[in-house]
Task: inverse folding
């Protein structure tokens, strides 16, 4: 609760007013219910000088008072009646430093043009909350795609009658009330009405409801004169469609009453009521990497234009979203390692892998058409052959480029594309040329070109250069990739399907971005993740970490440019490893594994802090703890051989790594098997390497590389031999400090870090933002995501609730995306088969069934798990396409392990999974489509029936589901009350359980 020194600002405000002697003077009063903490204040900031011209230090302070149990903030000022201004509310500290702004659009001071002199205008506002479900529905994914734009004629019908005059002289008995409400989801032809307890606003059922008029795509406004004796007013909003059907908002009646804090009566009250209260909107979608899609036209891999087939699949089945993995160019190494889609060569360029060769020209010579067909047949494999596919596409594209380049480069479409994208396109083309010239993407090996300058880039990309044909070919590829992805994106928008992209957390250290913007990266470090569900040894992704301090100097311009580029194609996006915007797991660049890292930023343990606790032997704690008995445990009879080669004996039976072997990378390079080595030698080298790295990690504290008086506890320090052989006092102290470091002392720092970066990302585009918040999640993450209105991810096998083995979909928050699996773990079928004990616990504790579970995830089990997720409160339920295929036996005949997309524990995993069924086949399978549609109908998630324009697409689809009738002997099957509801509604097929 702030001090009352901000009490009356009318006099202060008057001193800032422009003097207009011929204009009338009016009083503006702002009223906002909002709960604050001690030291926090609210103020009004706006575009006019009387509200500070958006200078927060010059904003209008507010003062608090209690109205019953509600804390109300109030401010007033005197202005002339011609004031035109925008404004918003801002939460600040005692020094007027911004804590946070309210979300949403800027408010508009819209005063009637003929207000009487001395009028008092009250603005009854509500804080615009970024986490309000209705606020999310204003993002482009909903407003522009799912709900569609209203045509101009529709808006004209409701805007032509907007009043701009007070119309009635000042009255002591009545007050003009202006009601404002936002409706995020209106179907074509629907109108907003208001009905209340007062005669001026419909008098409930006995009067005529007040018709509201549209002031913008979402905002509706209506006005009425109300007798002051009729206050307080009770009222509600309602929608009426073309046929006259009324839909009332949910919840109790809204109440409008006079402010008890003020004495001067109101002339006009402007009531901003937030959003029309409707049932929370919920949708569903499918997730599949583009490279995994199989179609009749693709060459070796799914392609951008195959997304149009997925849109058709989504519309026919009732799904509203398609989620893909990153599609940026990853051509760093020129081999299959580049199949890793999160290691970007450029965060702007698209990957040639996804090019549709047949769409490069309308006049492809017959011999090239034949070559494409031969390649298509040759590459029609069970899994993606990454290297062969990329090489084939580049070879054929080069032939077409030589035939088509003049026509393409002279076209208006290409010229517009080049002009819009040259800022990143030219450096990217120069990089690709130099990569191929020097045979490496490691730009530190490029001699004169190792350091990027604009002048060097301009010379490299000059149209007069001898090598310009190589540069132009890059332009040609990117133009066609852009055109093809844009075509698919436009097709998705037209059919009201959200296309969701993926924003990788890192870039490859040998990338265009690290070459052009080296100051934005900490090139002597690597990014990864601490030990978690995916890998108990942690992960080392190899990306350099970000220099956030440098990035902040231009308000994170590099990130804003990335989001602007993504928004050209996508209306929603997934933020990969969103925890990295709170803190990143930073590793020295000489590490291979992900264990020996520390969080950045973080508050280290100081030497003084440790010494006060009786900890003093810092060399013992921070250097690898290697003793004779540990060498014997690791290497058996070979321990003396290992000790002599890799260590110095600095004390009796105490050893230290020799300098040439004192990092993980040095050990890895020393013990790397040569090509063609026998298997016994490879196994021996691997065992030795593993043992040495394990000893290298035998530390309790890691000393800061810059400040030797600061330390970071090693993750899982209690599992080391070094820790186990300490005295009890040291163990107790170090364990306490360890838990404080990882789970308590950083929370505020990490929250502040996220508030600096995430809002910039979210405000850079109109896309709906979703965060991948799996792994070791700090306590501060969920509150921040919720406040920002950023959806979190819920994977059932990785519950976010402490102490749970499995997530319970019915308990998920609304602001989440739920799924039984994702691309970073095994599929639903594979997970079911991995662990018999876990399967039994899940079958009994989550599904509520007492029989012995089937060893395979048959269609019945798959149906129950998917149904659980469909019925969850989560805004989105997005399923890997493999999990949907488990619903039909004929699609689930592939070994389940083969459907896994990624193995996070393997940094060199080959990303090559392809579906074994074409999208065209799925589009013709009405049984499969009706199963999916049945989920949506029973769970009441959004279906095409909510979007009448698409009813034609559903023709021919069987409305009932194969699961609509219960088969088998139900009396022998015990079910929980939750599942009883499923059985009663005919949504479970209860056969084949044993």
Result:
């Amino acid at each position: 609760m702030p001090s009352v020194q901000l009490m009356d600002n009318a006099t202060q405000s008057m001193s800032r007013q422009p003097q207009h002697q011929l204009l009338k003077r009016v009083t503006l009063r702002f009223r906002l219910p909002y709960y604050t903490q001690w030291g926090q204040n609210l103020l009004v900031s706006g575009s006019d000088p009387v509200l500070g011209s958006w200078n927060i230090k010059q904003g209008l302070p507010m003062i608090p008072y209690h109205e019953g149990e509600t804390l109300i903030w109030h401010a007033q000022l005197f202005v002339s009646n011609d004031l035109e201004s925008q404004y918003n509310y801002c939460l600040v500290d005692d020094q007027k430093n911004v804590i946070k702004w309210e979300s949403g659009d800027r408010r508009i001071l819209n005063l009637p043009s003929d207000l009487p002199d001395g009028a008092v205008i009250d603005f009854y506002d509500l804080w615009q909350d970024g986490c309000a479900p209705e606020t999310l529905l204003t993002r482009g994914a909903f407003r522009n795609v799912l709900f569609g734009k209203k045509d101009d004629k529709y808006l004209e019908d409701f805007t032509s009658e907007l009043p701009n005059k007070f119309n009635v002289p000042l009255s002591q008995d009545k007050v003009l009330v202006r009601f404002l409400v936002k409706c995020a989801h209106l179907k074509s032809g629907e109108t907003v009405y208001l009905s209340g307890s007062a005669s001026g606003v419909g008098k409930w059922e006995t009067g005529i409801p007040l018709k509201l008029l549209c002031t913008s795509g979402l905002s509706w406004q209506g006005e009425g004169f109300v007798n002051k004796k009729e206050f307080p007013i009770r009222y509600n909003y309602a929608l009426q469609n073309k046929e006259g059907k009324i839909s009332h908002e949910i919840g109790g009646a809204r109440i409008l009453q006079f402010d008890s804090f003020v004495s001067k009566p109101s002339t006009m009250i402007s009531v901003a009521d937030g959003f029309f209260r409707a049932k929370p909107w919920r949708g569903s979608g499918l997730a599949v990497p583009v490279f995994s899609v199989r179609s009749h036209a693709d060459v070796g891999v799914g392609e951008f234009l195959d997304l149009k087939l997925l849109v058709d699949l989504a519309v026919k089945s009732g799904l509203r979203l398609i989620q893909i993995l990153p599609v940026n160019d990853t051509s760093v190494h020129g081999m299959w390692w580049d199949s890793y889609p999160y290691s970007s060569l450029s965060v702007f360029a698209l990957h040639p892998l996804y090019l549709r060769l047949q769409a490069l020209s309308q006049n492809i010579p017959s011999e090239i058409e034949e070559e494409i067909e031969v390649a298509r047949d040759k590459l029609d494999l069970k899994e993606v052959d990454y290297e062969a596919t990329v090489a084939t596409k580049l070879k054929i594209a080069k032939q077409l480029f030589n035939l088509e380049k003049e026509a393409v480069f002279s076209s208006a479409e290409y010229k517009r594309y080049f002009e819009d994208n040259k800022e990143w396109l030219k450096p990217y083309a120069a990089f690709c040329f130099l990569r191929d010239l020097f045979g490496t993407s490691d730009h530190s090996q490029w001699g004169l070109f190792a350091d990027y300058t604009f002048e060097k880039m301009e010379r490299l990309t000059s149209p007069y250069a001898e090598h310009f044909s190589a540069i132009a070919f890059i332009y040609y590829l990117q133009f066609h990739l852009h055109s093809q992805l844009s075509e698919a994106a436009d097709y998705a928008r037209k059919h009201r399907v959200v296309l969701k992209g993926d924003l990788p957390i890192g870039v490859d250290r040998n990338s265009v971005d690290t070459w052009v913007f080296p100051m934005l990266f900490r090139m002597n470090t690597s990014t990864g993740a601490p030990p978690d569900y995916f890998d108990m040894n942690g992960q080392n992704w190899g990306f350099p970490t970000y220099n956030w301090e440098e990035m902040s100097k231009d308000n994170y311009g590099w990130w804003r440019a990335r989001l602007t580029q993504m928004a050209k194609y996508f209306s929603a996006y997934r933020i990969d490893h969103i925890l990295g915007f709170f803190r990143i797991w930073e590793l020295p660049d000489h590490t291979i594994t992900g264990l020996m890292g520390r969080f950045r930023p973080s508050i280290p343990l100081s030497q003084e802090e440790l010494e006060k606790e009786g900890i003093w032997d810092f060399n013992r704690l921070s250097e690898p703890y290697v003793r004779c008995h540990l060498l014997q445990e690791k290497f058996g009879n070979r321990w003396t051989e290992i000790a002599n080669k890799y260590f110095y004996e600095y004390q009796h039976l105490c050893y230290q790594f020799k300098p040439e072997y004192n990092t993980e990378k040095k050990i890895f390079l020393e013990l790397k098997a040569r090509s063609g080595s026998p298997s016994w030698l490879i196994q021996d080298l691997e065992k030795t390497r593993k043992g040495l790295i394990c000893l290298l990690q035998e530390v309790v504290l890691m000393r800061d590389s810059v400040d030797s008086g600061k330390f970071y506890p090693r993750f899982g320090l209690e599992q080391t031999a070094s820790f186990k052989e300490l005295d009890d006092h040291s163990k107790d102290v170090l364990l306490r400090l360890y838990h404080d470091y990882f789970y308590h002392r950083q929370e505020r720092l990490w929250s502040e870090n996220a508030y600096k970066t995430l809002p910039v990302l979210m405000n850079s585009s109109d896309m709906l933002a979703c965060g991948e918040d799996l792994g070791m999640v700090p306590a501060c993450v969920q509150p921040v995501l919720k406040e920002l209105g950023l959806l979190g991810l819920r994977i059932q096998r990785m519950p976010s609730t402490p102490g749970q083995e499995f997530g319970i979909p019915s308990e998920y928050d609304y602001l989440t995306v739920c799924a039984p699996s994702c691309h970073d773990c095994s599929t639903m079928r594979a997970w079911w088969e991995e662990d018999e004990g876990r399967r039994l616990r899940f079958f009994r504790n989550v599904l509520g069934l007492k029989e012995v579970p089937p060893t395979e995830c048959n269609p019945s089990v798959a149906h129950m798990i998917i149904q659980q997720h469909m019925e969850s409160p989560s805004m989105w339920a997005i399923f890997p396409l493999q999990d949907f295929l488990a619903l039909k036996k004929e699609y689930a005949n592939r070994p389940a392990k083969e459907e896994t997309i990624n193995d996070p524990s393997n940094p060199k995993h080959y990303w090559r999974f392809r579906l074994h069924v074409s999208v065209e086949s799925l589009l013709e399978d009405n049984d499969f489509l009706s199963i999916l549609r049945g989920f949506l109908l029973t769970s009441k998630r959004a279906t095409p029936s909510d979007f009448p324009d698409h009813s034609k697409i559903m023709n021919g689809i069987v409305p009932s589901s194969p699961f609509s009738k219960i088969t088998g002997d139900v009396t022998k099957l015990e079910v929980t009350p939750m599942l009883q509801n499923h059985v009663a509604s005919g949504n479970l097929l209860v056969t084949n359980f044993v």
